[in-house]
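Translate sequence into structure tokens.
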Amino acid sequence: MVTIAPTEIELPDYDAQLLAKLSAVAGEPAAVRAQRAAALALYRDLPLPPARDEEWRHSPLSLFPFAGVQLASPAQLGAVFNADPWDDDFDVVIEVHDDSFAIRDQASLLKRGALEILPLADALARQLPSAVAPTYRRKFVALNQAFWTAGFFVRVISGQCRLLLRWQFTKTGRLQLPRIAVAVESGAQLNLVERWRSTNDGPMLVIGAHEFRVAPDARLERVALHEWGVTTACIAEDAAVVGERGRADWVTAVLGGQAVKLVAGCDVAGRGADAHLSGLYFADGAQHVDQRTVQLHSSPDTTSHLLYKGAVQDRSHAIYQGLINARRGAVRVDAFQMNRNLVLNQGARADSLPGLEIDADDLKCSHGSATGNLDPEQLFYLRARGIAEDEARRLLVAAFFEEVIGKASQARVQEHLREAVRQKMEHAP
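Result follows.
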């Protein structure tokens, strides 16, 4: 057993025997087993984050039910596909339901060779150079790369693709480790929507790792909807690299989950690359939502703009940590970061920690944050026009989030987010 502090938590012993069992059930070739073993060695070598670690000090590992879950079975191709009204808006749909998955190529992009989708084991076995980033030195990413239970490699070769990736976890007491590797080739465009959902029936832990490569002159539009059940905890890390003149637009929405810790890092790595990161989170009950973003500028003439907005009510707690990092030589960078939070009642809490690390000259980088209550003057204005207080509060919260909601290009996603905010306000204290 490994401990992080005398009073903190003990993690199960994820060892080579468990890894061998997972690979045997999945029937994986030697090349994949070797890559898993290398990631396991790294995981076991890396220390757990100490309780005072800046990135983890607001989210003790005791929030995450490591001891109460067992490793899930690897997902296998299944015949069942649950149709959903959302499917009509997409060219291709991937559905993962616990330990089975299905793929529907509604626009024949796979048949035409414009798109490639592989189970991750197949991509790793072929050692595709654009499949996945090498294992990097972060504890829970290494755990995911050793024990991932469901994974896909998606490569958009040409043209435009609208892809829905639908995840549904219903088996309680499980540790799920999903992994996605996405490559958008030069001149291509991917519109990706991910829906992450689980039931409310019992404890579940999800540890995800998602990697994106946007080639020169390519574009990625991504929406990630975290709609976890109230007994699910999630740790996930997203990493993207954007090439010359490429663009990445992300919208991350956290609407559920008992404890959620997300890291989103984007390296605008090629000259002329552009990244726009947006976030929406609304915590209630006793929810704990901790998000960290990194806007990394490793090349000159790059741009990144970030806007995260959150609301907390009841006894919930939200944390946002942001970093703009302009490396040496990254001149003529334009980077902006803004975080705004609404605290809707006493007992709820929102912390905002923006930051800059600048190692270059001749650039424009700025950040800001604001945390407070609803504006009493705006409430008074609406009340004076005959609008009840509860409805006035709902209108102001809806207006607060609209700027982020509008960043999603799909009308169905926008309306879904508006409805989610409305439902949260229906249960406001």
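Note: The CA atoms of residues 397 and 421 lie 8 Å apart.
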